[in-house]
Design a protein that fits this description.
The complex is a heterodimer of chains A (112) and B (112). Chain A is mainly beta. Chain A has no helices and eleven strands. Classes of the chains: A mainly beta (112), B mainly beta (112). Chains A and B meet through strand 5 of A and strand 5, strand 9 and strand 10 of B.
Chain lengths: 112, 112
């Protein structure tokens, strides 16, 4: 069964600190992995999309990594800001039918 | 370019009623997907439409239905509402299946 697991479920860090969110998946055959940021009460917004051949992709202070061998991805946030407080959702797409499997997300809270 | 719009943004219904939610995709996008998001379950896929045809369907009861019009606008309908249907319903559009999805702000449905 295709699954996406994220850890931690929630995280609280001080403004200015770095943090890393994890995503493990069992989706096969793998097509691509996406990280979304979702502010409370809003729709998710795409941060990065990575295919099998990509190890790292950056979007400003957000850097995603992908290890297709171990089926793990991480999202690293540098110099966190209060506006980074949101849920971060990992989504994996299966090759062929392009069905998306969603993780339950990590709730990140940045405190001043 | 205008983003994905969803109407209404908020809705309160009572058990047993039915509800219709609307989604207007980004201009030029022909694929529309619907998701249900609850705190406990995260994002769950409902169905996907492309060129007025349902391409994929998630594991939801027949009370949940949808359709897409020739202008790519989509509606989803939930009949005989239950308390557990209270959720944020998100619509996402993409150029076509498998392409980057852009989410709308969602419709918050509360069933009392």
């Amino acid at each position: 069964k295709n699954q996406v697991e994220q850890s931690p479920q929630s995280l609280i860090i001080l403004e200015g600190k770095n943090c890393t969110l994890q995503c493990n998946y069992t989706v096969s055959p793998f097509s691509n992995l996406r990280w979304y940021k979702q502010d409370t009460g809003r729709g998710p917004v795409s941060l990065t999309i990575m295919t099998f051949s990509e190890n790292t992709k950056s979007n400003g202070r957000y850097t995603a990594t992908l290890d297709a061998d171990t089926k793990q991805s991480s999202l690293h946030i540098t110099a966190s800001q209060l506006s980074d407080s949101a849920s971060y959702i990992c989504v994996v797409s299966a090759f062929g039918n392009e069905k998306l499997t969603f993780g339950t997300g990590t709730r990140l809270t940045i405190i001043p | 370019k205008a983003g994905v719009t969803q109407t209404p943004r908020y809705l309160i219904k009572t058990r047993g009623q039915q509800v219709t939610l609307s989604c207007s995709p980004i201009s030029g996008h022909r694929s529309v997907s619907w998701y249900q998001q609850t705190p406990g379950q995260g994002l769950q896929f409902l169905f996907e439409y492309f060129s007025e045809t349902q391409r994929n369907k998630g594991n939801f009861p027949g009370r949940f239905s949808g359709r897409q019009f020739s202008n790519s606008r989509s509606e989803m309908n939930v009949s005989t509402l239950e308390l557990g249907d209270s959720a944020l319903y998100l619509c996402a559009s993409s150029l076509r299946e498998g392409y980057e999805q852009y989410f709308g702000p969602g419709t918050r449905l509360t069933v009392t």
